[in-house]
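Fill in residues.
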């Protein structure tokens, strides 16, 4: 029913040999999209839009990389987060195109860790590493065990240690790949807060902005993805770019 509206999501679904497996994503996909609240369909359409932004070669590479995670559910409470860690790269691809990059492509995996994307921006080679900060172990456990918990208004030290580690790791990967030391560097960061409904998202971004002001990382442009589906507001901060999607 929704194949015409979401052709690339259906291409992923078609890769699953046993769609009824409990470890398979897209279980009862058509029924769930049709029977769920409207925002569920909007979320899937938003993903379809991201995937449609990829050219044919980029899509085939991303699809191949994502294929093994379509039937790999993490039973610790994170679901198919590994799958979406891969698909998140499409967001960075589309961001680079949106700011005017040409010749955007995914960098094939190699024995040594490489950045995810490269392109040309204003005649300058541009490299981008994509990172995802997932929910905490405590939140994953609470979701797995259906535990009642209180969502806090302040991000803890563990979040900022992870953010710093990811950004420094991205910088190392970009520098190692840039043998000429002339490229422009980007880190595209997808954030999965413990606050599932996003009630404190504005406050979280304020804290992140303050942290980056106090702990700058020169030489890299930091981009955060703010998924506004289904009702979140647009956000902006001083020390990084925020992509307000949805």
């Amino acid at each position: 029913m929704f194949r015409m509206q979401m052709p690339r999501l259906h291409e992923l679904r078609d890769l699953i040999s046993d769609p009824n497996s409990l470890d398979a994503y897209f279980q009862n996909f058509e029924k769930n999209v049709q029977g769920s609240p409207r925002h569920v369909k909007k979320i899937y359409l938003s993903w379809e839009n991201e995937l449609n932004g990829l050219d044919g070669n980029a899509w085939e590479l991303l699809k191949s990389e994502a294929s093994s995670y379509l039937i790999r559910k993490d039973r610790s409470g994170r679901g198919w987060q590994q799958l979406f860690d891969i698909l998140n790269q499409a967001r960075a691809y589309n961001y680079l195109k949106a700011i005017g990059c040409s010749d955007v492509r995914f960098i094939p995996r190699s024995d040594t860790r490489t950045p995810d994307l490269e392109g040309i921006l204003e005649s300058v080679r541009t490299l981008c590493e994509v990172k995802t900060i997932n929910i905490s172990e405590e939140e994953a456990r609470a979701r797995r065990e259906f535990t009642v918990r209180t969502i806090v208004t302040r991000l803890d030290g563990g979040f900022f240690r992870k953010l710093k580690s990811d950004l420094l790791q991205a910088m190392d990967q970009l520098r190692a790949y840039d043998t000429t030391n002339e490229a422009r560097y980007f880190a595209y960061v997808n954030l999965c807060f413990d606050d599932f409904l996003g009630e404190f998202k504005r406050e979280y971004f304020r804290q992140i902005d303050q942290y980056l002001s106090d702990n700058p990382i020169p030489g890299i442009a930091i981009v955060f993805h703010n998924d506004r589906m289904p009702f979140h507001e647009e956000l902006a901060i001083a020390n990084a770019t925020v992509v307000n999607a949805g």
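Strands lie at 102-106, 117-121, 124-133, 184-191, 221-227, 241-245.
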